[in-house]
């Protein structure tokens, strides 16, 4: 992947408080699917895996199969994700609100019980009970303000790991679909 434009400090001036609040208020009204992104721990990170809850997951391209997600550079998972060659992408079901909350909670030991997981392809932590999962090779990290947009190519996965309805994030909380 070639990055030709830096969306960092020069391109994206720090928004004022009203601009940031406008963005937050607007996106509270946007329902988004909930995913957990995981990365294997390396020697530089005490060998501990990292993971976080994301609602910014996007399908980018079918050929090659690419996804993207955003991660804050101040998050506890960023140091591990910043050097990871592969990541796991897990689509959560409505039965996994507590798992989503665990991976969203700052300072939590996200991989301790009751979280159930195994080591998958490329050493990526794979969470049990998810609706679907992917293992992806990181092909780019694009600066975007205080975040990075990570672009990754799908190399393995299970699109139907479990039947169920998706978990959604809307109005600042986890929600389920209604009939």
TrEMBL record:
Domain Flavin reductase like: 27-176
Entry superkingdom: Bacteria
GO biological process: pyrimidine nucleobase catabolic process
GO molecular function: FMN binding; riboflavin reductase (NADPH) activity
Keywords from the named record: Oxidoreductase
Presence of keyword Oxidoreductase: yes
Alphabetized InterPro entries for the sequence: Flavin_Rdtase-like_dom (IPR002563), NADH-dep_flavin_reductase (IPR050268), Split_barrel_FMN-bd (IPR012349)
SUPFAM superfamilies for the chain: FMN-binding split barrel (SSF50475)
Pfam families: Flavin_Reduct
Keyword check for Oxidoreductase: yes
Protein name (Swiss-Prot/TrEMBL): Flavin-dependent reductase
Organism of origin: Streptomyces roseolilacinus
